[in-house]
Amino acid sequence: QDEYLDQWGKALEQSPLANQQTDVASLQASIAYHMNASLFRTQHNLEKVAVYQALAHSMADKLLLDWNRTQQRYRKDNPKRVYYLSMEFLLGRALDNAMLALHMKTAYQEAVQGLGFRLEDLLEQERDPALGNGGLGRLAACYMDAAAALDLPMWGYGLRYQYGLFRQSVQQGFQVEAPDDWLMRHHPWEFPRDIKYDVQFYGYVATKMNDKGESRLFWESDHKIRAVAYDVPVPGKDGFCGNIRLWASQPPHHGGFDLDAFNQGNYDQSIASLKDAFLLTSVLYPNDNHQAGKELRLKQEYFFVSASVQDVVHRFKRYRCPWSEFPNKVAFQLNDTHPTLAIPELQRILVDVEGLAWDDAWDIVTRTFAFTNHTVLPEALEKWPIYVMEKVLPRHMQIIYDLNLFFLQKVEEKFPGDRDLLNRVSIIEEASPQQVRMAFLAVVGSHSVNGVAALHSELVVKELFNDFSLYYGKDKFINITNGISPRRWLYQANPGLRDLITHTLGSEDWVADLPQLQKLAPFADNLEFQQQWMAIKYANKVRLTQWIRDDCGLTVDPRALFDIQVKRMHEYKRQFLNILGVIHRYRVLLQMSPEARRRVPPRVVIFGGKAAPGYAIAKLVIKLINSVADVVNNDPVIDDHLKVVYLPDYNVSLAEKIVPASDISQHISTAGTEASGTSNMKFVINGGLILGTVDGANIEIRDEIGEDNIFLFGTLADQVADIRHAQKYHGVLLDANLQSVLDAIQAGVFGDASIFNPLIDTLTYGGDFYLISEDFDAYIKRQNDVDALFLQKAAWAAKSIRCTAGMGFFSSDRSIGQYASRIWKVDKTALGNGSTSTAD
Ligand code: GLS
Fold it and tell me: Is residue 840 part of a domain?
């Protein structure tokens, strides 16, 4: 075949793919071509969605070429590669992002205009791929974006869920869930590959002789499901293009059809394995910071890591390097514990399949894996009952037992006679039932463990893995503070601000070198600059206002103070505190004279976020918000002084509209509970001030932008335990203002009071675990400070500018750079001239 390689290269160079022009007429030609050839439609039958799809195909052609060139170069140069294993990639829409990355938006805008369409309308046709729950999945997307921009040879591996995170609507104030059938319509942003691996479940472990006459343990099962690869290109910079490989499940044989069963009239049986395979990757579990504990979820986790590890081993073997080279060519990053089974899976492949000695294999494994912890909440820490593991993955359970035994022997050597310690660090929890502690397995199998913000990383060592840090030493446990993509969250989401910054700094270099934003600081007190700055904020608020009108049928005034809390609904994030504060504000406003009321700046309080379908208390908070909105928004005395909005179906594309429009946003978790938060960074980089607790990345944001530019309040993390302790013994003494707010709810001011009883009980009988009463007074006072500052337009504008100026540290490029140098030990590869034939 090699003698024809040149010919293939030449043929490609002559092909339309390699000869794409970017003038308007050529782009129109390419859109028309795809309308006919890819969608099989004509210009006599044009809907917006079809034009969007043709446009997306046209854009994807350009990415394809970059993808091939980048991946071919990696294949040729064989650098050390990073594999980011994540059950979630919350990508958001692709088209706008790709057009901006390749500097083609203006040309396409003109092209579609000439064909009778507005680009903004077409962009709205794209469905969000919602393959993630919240911050953890969105972080994975920002990291893939950064790696592509930096030309870092990193691939993401994940699952191609048929249904993403459920779609949320609100009916009578309650959350209603519907399946997210995002693949119902043709999706031009993925490329199915002819790459397949079988993954098995259940079965038994036997001893067998191998070819060399050695006896080996062997796991056998008839229950197999096939993983097939779909590649998702990640646009980078200067022609780089990264990749996310998502696995879909298929039946292993004959398309899953049992002809014998069919012939016997047993129709259900004839497609049984088809149903099995379909179910496996059908849906993303909708829990954030909470373990679901279902057998199907365990199977998803194993399916995903087994296919990924097989694929990586296959790629490594292509170069015929000795196994000892594996850690020099491969780095696996575990995005939380969900992919932890990759550790025993690689050990199994090395020992059972490749025939390595146990210790050699384990040395390779532990030099290859690194683990990121994303939460200290106990309910989120994955544990799998042993009886489930033994049934689903019998060989892995044996491997985990052995790993644990050898690990505990070493601990015993270092700390002889400390039985309590052995109990505490054992991968197997001696509870009833016995369980595998996945976080401990991840720590033992990894060479590096990191938290995602300074405070969180401290708590990870102090609270979660204290014993492990004594055993391994502190160097294994590090902090890498999260970051966000400045490309999506400023450049794309806020074109007005982007252009002002570029104009002021003289070039677009700040996007790739975010600390340059600091050069805005000298303009903070410049009145003319302030006016330009705030005019952009105002325009973004107007844009959101239109969305609120279309989506909620509510008219709000863009001159009001926009106060926003959008994130997953969770008790620890304390949307409850926010809405209780709103009720307090409502009552205070009602008691004021009209003149006094006019002196308070009008506010629009905006909420958004989904609650896990099984999380009753979080769903009740949604109901309370909507009930309060009903009353407040229709109270003629209050008029425009206060409006409450609940935006349904919060997702990435909605976030792109909301984030640039905030005056203030709330990040008010109980101290010590929010590992980092990343939306806080998105709001601040867009010149939004924040009201927050001394928690997660809020702390580092304060350090970067300055204490004067952030409204912090409330209990500190190291006080929480003592307060809870005291509450347990002395009961909760409710704050007086809070008590009157609760009285109002219970008096039926917001409709049927009885439905809110379980919610109010969390404060009283429940012991107020999240310290809402404790923090209530400080919260209200800080909100009053926000009001006062908002009235001083110039002072507010100056702070807003200083916020953006101080955010250079929070680029995902900085985070990925730190992962690369401190954990993966990989460099940016030099841009080579790899050939353009199809890779991998
Ligand atoms: C999370 C944390 O809750 C967030 O604070 C964090 O920003 C995010 C990314 O590190 O990870 N952990 C989790 O389980 N879901 C999250 O969003």
Answer: no
d(CA 575, CA 691): 13
Query: Is any ligand 1 atom within 6 A of the Cβ of residue 695?
Result: no
- 407 shares its domain with 459: yes
Half-sphere exposure of residue 647: CA atoms within 13 angstroms, side-chain side: 26
Give the pLDDT confidence of 199-245 residue by residue, as tens digits.
999 999 999 887 788 888 989 999 999 999 999 999 999 899 999 99
- Is 14 a domain residue? no
Neighbours of 1 (CB within 10 A): 5
Same domain, 552 and 415: no
The answer on 468 and 499 residing in a single domain is no
Nearest to 681 by CA among 710, 715, 650: 710
Please tell me if the CB atom of residue 678 comes closer than 6 angstroms to any atom of ligand 1: yes
How many other β-carbons are positioned within 10 Å of the β-carbon of residue 112?
22
Phi, psi of 194 (to 5 degrees): -90, 50
* Residue 609 CB less than 6 A away from ligand 1: no
Same domain, 308 and 379: yes
- Nearest-10 Cα torsion for 612, 614, 615, 617: 130
What is the domain-level CATH number for residue 502?
3.40.50.2000
Domain boundary among 426, 448, 481: 481
460 lines ligand 1 (CB under 6 A): no
List the domain range (segments joined by +) for residue 684: 486-725+775-810
3-state helix/strand/coil string of 590-655: HHCCHHHHHHCCCEEEEEECCCCCCCHHHHHHHHHHHHHHHHHHCCCCCHHHEEEEEECCCCHHHH
Ligand 1 geometric centre to CA of 677 (Å): 6
**pLDDT at residue number 834:** 32
* Residue 482 CA, closest ligand 1 atom number: 10
pLDDT value at position 829?
54
Q: Is the ipTM of this complex over 0.95?
A: yes
- Is the shortest distance between the CB of 389 and ligand 1 below 6 Å? no
Token readout for 591 is 């008691």
- Number of structural domains the chain divides into: 2
Token pair in block for residue 100: 């901006």
Low-confidence ranges of the chain (pLDDT < 50): 830-840
Which class for 202: exposed (0-12), middle (13-18), buried (19 or more C-beta within 10 A)? middle
Does 787 map to a domain?
yes
Q: What is the pTM of this model?
A: 0.97
One domain for residues 448 and 367: yes
Q: Which atom of ligand 1 is nearest to the CA of 696?
A: 5
What is the Å distance from ligand 1's center to 678 Cα? 8
pLDDT at residue 212, rounded to an integer: 82
Q: And the tokens for 815?
A: 């985070």
**Same domain, yes or no, for 342 and 357?**
yes
* 177, 545, 679, 699 from 799: Cα distances, Å: 40, 24, 19, 17
Task: Count CA atoms closer than 13 A to 646's CA, side-chain side.
Answer: 29
Ligand 1 centroid to 609 CA: how many Å? 14
My answer on whether 473 and 518 are in the same domain is no
Note the pLDDT of residue 828. Answer: 64
Does 815 reside within a domain? no
Which value, to the nearest 10 degrees, does the dihedral of the CA atoms of residues 531, 532, 535, 539 take?
-170
Query: What are the catalytic residues?
Result: 374, 567-568, 573, 678, 682
CB of 88 sitting under 6 A from ligand 1: no
- Indicate if 441 and 530 belong to the same structural domain: no
Q: To test the ligand 1 pocket, which listed residue (291, 334, 374, 572) has its Cβ within 8 A of the most ligand atoms?
A: 374
Which of 136, 287, 337 best tests ligand 1's pocket when mutated (most atoms within 8 Å of CB)?
136
Judge if the beta carbon of residue 696 lies within 6 A of ligand 1: yes
Closest residue by CA, ligand 1 atom 4: 677
